[in-house]
Amino acid sequence: MNILILNGSPRPHGGTKAMVDAFATAAEEVGHEVHLFNVASLSIAGCRACEWCHTKGDGRCAFRDDMDLIYDVWDEADMIVLASPVYYGSLTGQLHCALHRTYAPGIPERATKTALFLCSGSPDVYEASERIYHGFVQGYFGTEDCGIFAATTDEAKSEAMAERLRELARSL
Ligand SMILES: Cc1cc2nc3c(=O)[nH]c(=O)nc-3n(C[C@H](O)[C@H](O)[C@H](O)COP(=O)(O)O)c2cc1C
After folding, report:
1. Does residue 135 line the site of ligand 1, with CB under 6 A?
2. Residue nearest to atom 3 of ligand 1 (CA)
3. Each residue's pLDDT tens digit, 93-131
4. 50 Cα–ligand 1 center, Å
5. Is the entire prediction scored with pTM above 0.90?
6. What structural domains does the chain harbor?
7. Which stretches of 43-132 are assigned E, i.e. beta strand?
């Protein structure tokens, strides 16, 4: 299975990355191919709503930046994982930019599964991110929801969370 992970955290050693690494390592160990994009380290602008993708572009975005790296694998992904710290009660701006730019290709051709990883400073701050995930990602794509894994920073880096994410990877 091809697994596309969009990690919205700018921290290379933060809680979100710990969750991503636990999942990705286990997924590769059982034979899945993981395409991990740390979108906060890439140059990805927001959607400019020019609608070229839906008029002349035949699903291609008019603008060239690092989003091209994600477009290259978008329709090859069997599973899409969104991972993000909670910023102001929602996903990071960097992840939002990448998500909005998927407006061009739209529903990924092969994806049948999605999951959401969240990391936050406080507990119980996940409602808006969950709504985006269920409404505009898992619901829109029509994918099986493989779970929402939400944790505060320390919990995100814990062995208990790593094991839950390894179990997810092994279950795919
Ligand atoms: C700009 C910004 C906004 C944040 N907003 C929230 C928030 O609304 N709720 C919350 O619980 N934590 C908030 N935090 C804290 C982060 O979610 C927390 O530090 C998290 O562990 C970061 O994940 P990371 O370690 O993967 O970078 C915010 C942090 C930043 C930098």
Report:
1. no
2. 87
3. 999 999 999 999 999 999 999 999 999 999 999 999 999
4. 32
5. yes
6. 2-171 (3.40.50.360)
7. 79-85, 113-120
